[in-house]
Amino acid sequence: MSKHDEARRAFLVGAVAGAGAVAGVGIAPQALAQNQVAAKEAPPAAHEHSPGARLGAFLNAENSATVAAFTERLMPGAPGKPGALEAGVLNYIDLALAGAYADQQDFYRRGLAALDAYCRKTHNAQFTQLSAVKQDEVIKALEDGKAAEFTWPSAQAFFNTLRTHTIEGMFADPVYGGNKDFAGWRLVGFPGAQPQFTPADMQSREAYAGTPMIGLQAQTPMRRG
To answer: Each residue of 81-111: pLDDT tens digit?
Structure first.
């Protein structure tokens, strides 16, 4: 992992851990049902895609690949350190856009189209075809508002939204589709919704290493009959 990647990971992890927002970050619990229904009922997209490619609840195959690559550059993985891909950030964003964040669908459509136009004009290739270094250059241009192909959303608004959704997908409760296998929580030592903590646990400054992590899914009462 490059120093640039390490710095980016440290920034996102520090932003969440420092704010103490790990437990609450993410979409509202009442939106969960919307997301699950959308994932099951979304009609097949009317476009060509590679054989065997599984389409999501909202994003088509091409847009899924772009979002996956973009978020992985925001939160790059490394040996023993899961990144956005391994944590299921794409799945989180896709489900959210089909449910709780449905009002941002056009934002994503237009933003991804502008990103594609900028990459083709600047590098004569799609974002997914660029090297990691070139992808970082593109992301930096968006962050600095220097990608002229963006009108609405602006380049900076698109960057900030994807960064926010990447953080949510990494650190929200796994019930929302991201943070697979508690990957994000393990990075910051967040134990989840444990039934109780000892006084020593409450006063310790070390990452919690007690009983297994527990998410909202484990707290959901089982339906009978």
So the answer is: 889 999 999 999 999 999 999 999 999 999 9
Tell me: cis bond preceding 212? Omega within 30 of 0 counts. Answer: no
Indicate the average pLDDT of the chain.
78
Is residue 132 in a domain? yes
Helix, strand, coil percentages for the chain (3-state, nearest 5) = 60, 0, 40
Number of folded domains in the chain? Answer: 1
Which distant-in-sequence residues (6+ apart) come within 8 Å of 1 by Cβ? 9, 76, 78, 81
Give the global pTM.
0.72
Averaged pLDDT, 117-138: 97
Residue 201 is assigned to a structural domain of this protein: yes
> Domain limits at 82?
3-219
Cβ atoms within 10 A of the Cβ of 125, count? 13
Alpha-carbon distance of 129 to 56, in angstroms, equals 21
Amino acid identity of residue 122, one-letter, is: T
How many Cα atoms are found within 13 Å in the side-chain-facing hemisphere of 116? 12
Residue type at 115 in one-letter notation: L
